[in-house]
Amino acid sequence: MAEIVLDKVTKRYPDGALAVSDVDIEIADGEFIILVGPSGCGKSTTLNMIAGLEDITSGELRIGGNRVNERAPKDRDIAMVFQSYALYPHMTVRENMAFPLRLAKVDNATVERKVNDAAEILDLTQHLDRRPANLSGGQRQRVAMGRAIVRSPKAFLMDEPLSNLDAKLRVQMRTSVSRLQKQLGTTMVYVTHDQVEAMTLGDRVVVMRGGVVQQIGAPQYLYDHPSNLFVAGFIGSPSMNFLPATLEDGTLRSSLAELPLTDRIRKLLESADAPREVIMGVRPEHFEDAALLDDASRARGATFTGQVDVLESMGSDKYAYFTLSGEQATSAELAELAADVGSADVPTSGIQLVTRISAASPARLGQSAEIWFDADKVQLFDPSSGRNLTFAGE
Amino acid sequence: MSMQSDMSQSVIGADAVKRSGGRGKVVLSEGKKAERKLGLMLIAPAAIVMVAVTGWPIIYSVWLSLQRFDLRFPEKQAFVGLENYGTVLSNGYWWTAFGVTSLITVVSVVFELVLGMGLALIMHRTLVGRGLVRTVALIPYGIVTVVAAFSWRYAWTDGTGYLASLFGQDQALLTQRVPALAIIILAEVWKTVPFMALLLMAGLALVPEDLLKAAAMDGANGWQRFTKVMIPVMKPAILVALLFRTLDAFRIFDNIFILTSGAQNTSSVSMQTYNNLIKGLNLGIGATMAVLIFITVAIIAFVFVKLFGTAAPGSDQEGRR
């Protein structure tokens, strides 16, 4: 077990492409940390540099206090689980799991004991003499985990280990990965493009974009206090709603409503030196059906009236979708997020708004509804830099 | 090249026989029967052509091998049963040639495998000028064997050859048995390493990059990754390459014909067959030798195909399930 420190780590390919730029992460001993971001953001490259499968162009990587930049993967004492599982097809499950121990010239009795222990933990005992080709996806994934844990390495690296599983199994495996990490107490660095996995698994999450770390923090912190537009849009499902808005005389004008700023937000904006044109962000759960609220609650926000496009009842609550007239908010970050989820290809006109309202709401599909939103939960962003103007964190 | 295509056909043929044998036990539905009939009809044209161009000569050779048939004494032609086989198999020259052929086959294939693997790894790993490297490496395979054999002969000719002069003067290496065999093997290896490398490179492409990364993470050094991961995973490709080359090498003719003409007991079985059939005009004995070569090659192919049965990952799973 050991802490892992990335100190200004940079990866530049021979053709000049910058894959990872000045990454600073301090991973504590026993911590479960997630690297998340859209494809091509440099998260896998970062993981491969920790593993030693890719050279570090500049900066320093320390594991357990020692600089390991120049060490081969086998000398770093870390184990890795690959998205493809990378099981050796010519070996049985037992041989696969024993392989790292055999290479380390561990005696037979110990190998036998460790493999059996790992198989016990991962519920693979009855499959030990089968070959990978005869296993299901979930079983293969567990064998890959088994091969990593038999060595009791200083740290585990996971490269999208659940991406090849079907949705139901993925949720199930997610909890078992989490439980396994707590049980073993080993440092784990986990790469995923799935923000739900990032939110549910990690002690801390590192959001990356274009090779640059955007923000590092606990999942809830990133959700509540995104430092910029990209993190705000990436974390959360359904994602935050963004609208163009104008700041004028302490009022926020948008196609939703005219909203007097709360004192808290006004102070933050003053110290952030906010521009006039901003992007307003509101999370779906900060909306509510106005019909369900008393006057005191209503006074803490603003309301708008719109026609319900789509109504999804989730049982516990409802998602109501609206289309507002006006231009969509535009910024480089939002364009990249849209491209990542593929929504850039869906033609839309006007502003799409997702609201999460109480299940008790009388809102009906195709009819108009009055929707309230919380004035103090609004976040404002600078459209040119993407900076969160209402960022209250340190 | 025609030899190789023959071989691949025979491999496919063996596979098809195995599969249809397994299916035969199952009771077929109407739809399956119709599908099968259509399948047979679709392969019929190809099968007929194959029988005409390969099946008939084989049958004719077997028939000839059972005759006393010497074109110098055509009036003595008669059916003699297996007498020709007795004659050939009790003859010292045949067994010498058989030994020489086997030696050339084993030694050259071993060298070709090792060097071919090296070349394949180089071509697989080359990042710059990959196309150029591959083209250059393939040149020997593109040169007509007879032409290449002549250039080897001149190079080793005492007094004029540049290679002969390297190995000391007034020694006609091609007229001494052991050096001559070594030169024959050298010429064979030089010619077919690129072919071997190509086949092995196709096998290398089958080894997923993640598997090698995983092995590196598991603590394997370069050599261990090669022997414990790469070779086992590409074993089917290695066996195919070995099969092709072993069958090919066993029928060696042109290099020996040009380099030594079989002098100093350097004849291969194919040379002996040629000597009896074409030079000696003894159709019966020549055909007998041809049939014996055919049987040997068939045995080699059979052994290899049996090996495939347990080595190829795909067939292994089917076998276990």
UniProtKB/TrEMBL annotation, chain A:
GO terms for biological process: carbohydrate transport. It comes from the Bacteria. Transmembrane segments: none annotated. InterPro entries: AAA+_ATPase, ABC_transporter-like_ATP-bd, ABC_transporter-like_CS, ABC_transpr_MalK-like, ABC_transpr_MalK/UgpC-like, Mo/tungstate-bd_C_term_dom, NA-bd_OB-fold, OB_MalK-like. Keywords: ATP-binding, Cell membrane, Membrane, Nucleotide-binding, Translocase, Transport. One of its GO terms (molecular function) is ATP binding. Signal peptide: none annotated. PROSITE patterns: ABC_TRANSPORTER_1 (PS00211), ABC_TRANSPORTER_2 (PS50893). GO terms for cellular component: ATP-binding cassette (ABC) transporter complex, substrate-binding subunit-containing. Residues 4-235 form the ABC transporter domain. This is sn-glycerol-3-phosphate ABC transporter ATP-binding protein UgpC. It comes from Solihabitans fulvus.
